[in-house]
Amino acid sequence: MPTSAGLMTLQVVAKRVEADDVASFVLAAPDGADLPEWVPGAHVDVEVAPGVLRQYSLCGDPAERARWRIAVLREDPGRGGSRRLHDEVGVGANLPVGLPRNNFPLVNAEEYVFVAGGIGITPLLPMIRAAHAAGASWSLHYGGKRRDRMAFLGELACYGDRVRVLPEDEHGLLPLADILAAAPARAQVYCCGPEPLLDAIERACAAGRADALRVERFAPRAVAAGPDSAFEVLAASSGKVVEVGAGQSVLDALTRAGIEMPSSCREGTCASCETPVLEGEVDHRDSVLSAQERAEGKVMMLCVSRARSPRLVLDI
């Protein structure tokens, strides 16, 4: 598996239409070697065009070490990556793929409530498999625009009435208040899907279940931010001070100063540029960290977050 810029070359060994505008891709090493281990909730970077990375959840079985599976929603108004995968990438094609990262880990619990909207089902599939294998109590509430646009329904059918399939054209929006009211008091709530669903479930859980809720976003959340101000970043390992301009990200300022940092999405959703903060107050603008993690201020996403203080000292 030759690597380039932290990516390994994997081969598409299977491609399947899972629903209208949703295709799955099974990836394997060209030499058949085992792939790196991963756990439910993980995602990988895929280079969909030279220098263009997109993030996709691993939605297969972590125990199947020789193959990874991702699923891709075709987004015609999007940036073109999904269209290329749907239209140009078939069985036998090679794709540069990064190592698994996990911002959405499944915690050990006796009870779970899973809520999916559309392509948001993908990170939940291996979680459901793991919860079921562990003998936990769980339920899935799966919404989408129409039944024919909802992927993996056949795969989920084996779980019987633990799975509620609720297409919007048949049932309306997911009844979050009812779902949460019926959920066990100690259940961990996992949700992935479009931003309106995530906003709605965060509001619904704010009063009593905020600590139990975990969400994953495919797009950045709307963040209310005032006018940007310039500030300094001190690289602790070298003592180098870098000026970050009002219209410049920390990531770009460090790169221009010759300090290369890992990055991928550049919109605060993938956590590849997460960096420890030793001193200073962070203006968090990412879509990954929890409210508690933001309050602690121990890490930041260099691509979007800024400083509230005149200087940040970073552990770099």
Automatic annotation (TrEMBL):
It comes from the Bacteria. Keywords: 2Fe-2S, Flavoprotein, Iron, Iron-sulfur, Metal-binding, Oxidoreductase. It comes from Actinokineospora iranica. One of its GO terms (molecular function) is 2 iron, 2 sulfur cluster binding. InterPro entries: 2Fe-2S_ferredoxin-like_sf, 2Fe-2S_ferredoxin-type, 2Fe2S_fd_BS, Beta-grasp_dom_sf, FAD-bd_FR_type, FNR_nucleotide-bd, MRET, Riboflavin_synthase-like_b-brl. Its cofactor is FAD. Residues 5-107 form the FAD-binding FR-type domain. The keyword DNA damage does not apply. This is Ferredoxin-NADP reductase. Residues 229-316 form the 2Fe-2S ferredoxin-type domain. The keyword Membrane does not apply.
